[in-house]
Every structure is written in structure tokens, then in C-alpha cells.
Write a structure and sequence with these properties.
It is a single chain. The chain contains eight helices and eleven strands. The model has no long low-confidence stretch (mean pLDDT about 90). About 35% of the residues lie in helices and about 25% in strands. The strands form two sheets. The chain has a seven-stranded parallel beta sheet with strand order 7-6-5-10-8-11-9. The chain has a four-stranded mixed beta sheet with strand order 1-2-3-4. By secondary structure, the protein is of the alpha/beta class. The two termini are about 30 Å apart.
Length: about 240
């Protein structure tokens, strides 16, 4: 099944120029053909093409289907972007495929990269949503200072992946109950600074370990997401 994305399909009945081009030029669909459109907010729309224009394809909505997420608690993944942006693009794609509600890039003291191309990441996330047959598009949050993210986060459970063995850390896969809203915070390649750790701990973040192996930033983030979904599935 091929899915198209249009956040305002229900009000406009028109695909974006990008989606229209894919529909008409690439797939060569024409008037009368049926397509499935996701609005990114949990709905699939079965539509019939009424005007197959390569820049603004019009459709008639035949049916709307509400789609529930396959997990209950809200999952926020906050990551310090790596020097190699390809790794963050890969992570964004896989995070959407596996399942996340919010992806936040945080600017830490030891970050090497302080700029993230939001438009590029968002396109990758939309593509991953469609490829994985999801109707929910996770919220992508602009790069923000770590201190501001810590102060604004409202999750019931807050974990911080931290490499310093001198600080007592919990086993992530054992500690989480799989039922409460969760934030997973992953630091930069040079790890968090002592001041950042102190700020996070004071705000209720718990230092956790993802095992005995030292992981890259994107590997730790993906491991945490996979472990989270495994725990949630066991609890259901």
C-alpha cells in the first residue's frame, strides 16, 4: 500500500506539490484512481482522485479511518546531534519506524554540531511514516539549549544515558515499567558536562545504563527506543 501525506487533506482536499508530483508523474495515477492519505494526526483517508494535476492533485474523500498508536505512553527522544548529520538523519528515520511521539535535538556544552537542518529531517520523518504505514507523524522540535529542554520536559519518567561509571546508574531495561510517559535523553559524543548532569539530576532525570558496551549517540538512542517498545509490549 502506498500512502500519501497531507496534514490538511480533510479541509482542502488537495495534495501538496511534492505529493502531487509523486502521484501523477512517478506513479502515473489518474482521475478515478483510489489512494490512501495520512494526515499525520492519526487518520487515514481513502480518496478518489478527481483532478490528477502534477502540482495540486485534487481528491474526494470516501472514508476516514482513525488509527491508534501501537503504544500507550508518550515517548520523547532528546538527542544531541552528532558531527556527522547523516547519523541523525538515519536515527530520525528509524525512530519514526519503531515509534516515537517527539524527537528533540538538544544543544549541549560539548556538542560539535550546533545546527540541524529541520526541513531535511522532517522530510525523512514523513517518508518513514509513510513507509512504515503509520498515521501519526512525530513532533520534531527545533534544536534547543539542553537547559531549556530540561526545564520544559513534563514526562513522568526521565532517563539520561550517561557514561560516567562513578555515578550510580540504573539498568534502563529493568527500571522502566512501560506504562508512564517517558523521556530518553542522550548526550553528545563527548558526553554531558558535570554541570549538565547536575542540572538534569536536580530536574528529576535518572542516570541509566544501556549495557556494558559503549555505544555511539545514535546507537544508544535506537537501543533505548527498541528496549522501550519491548517493555511496553510485555506489559500489554
Amino acid at each position: 500500500m502506498i500512502i500519501f501525506y497531507s496534514p490538511d487533506i480533510e479541509s482542502t482536499g488537495v495534495l501538496s506539490e511534492t505529493e502531487s508530483g509523486h502521484c501523477c508523474r512517478v506513479l502515473r495515477l489518474r482521475e478515478g484512481d483510489h489512494i490512501t492519505v495520512a494526515d499525520g494526526m492519526g487518520h487515514f483517508f481513502e480518496c478518489e482522485i478527481t483532478d490528477a494535476h502534477p502540482k495540486h492533485t485534487s481528491v474526494m474523500i470516501l472514508d476516514r479511518r482513525d488509527v491508534e498508536r501501537h503504544w500507550s505512553p508518550k515517548i520523547t527522544l532528546a538527542v544531541a546531534p552528532t558531527k556527522n548529520l547523516d547519523r541523525m538523519e538515519w536515527l530520525a528515520e528509524k525512530a519514526v519506524e519503531i515509534g516515537v511521539d517527539r524527537l528533540v535535538f538538544v544543544d549541549c556544552q560539548r556538542n560539535v554540531r550546533h545546527v540541524v537542518k529541520r526541513d531535511r529531517i522532517e522530510k525523512i520523518m514523513i517518508s518513514a511514516m509513510k513507509q512504515s504505514l503509520k498515521a501519526h507523524l512525530p513532533k520534531l522540535v527545533e534544536l534547543m539549549p539542553l537547559s531549556r529542554f530540561i526545564a520544559s520536559d513534563t514526562s513522568q519518567v526521565k532517563y539520561m544515558g550517561y557514561c560516567d561509571p562513578s555515578i550510580e546508574r540504573r539498568d534502563f531495561s529493568v527500571d522502566y515499567d512501560g506504562m508512564r510517559d517517558l523521556t530518553i535523553l542522550i548526550g553528545p559524543e563527548g558526553d554531558f558536562s558535570p554541570e549538565e548532569v547536575e542540572t538534569a539530576l536536580a530536574a528529576g532525570f535518572s542516570p541509566v545504563t544501556f549495557g556494558n558496551t559503549r555505544l555511539r549517540t545514535e546507537s544508544a538512542a535506537l537501543y533505548a527506543l527498541c528496549a522501550t517498545h519491548s517493555i511496553i509490549t510485555q506489559k500489554e
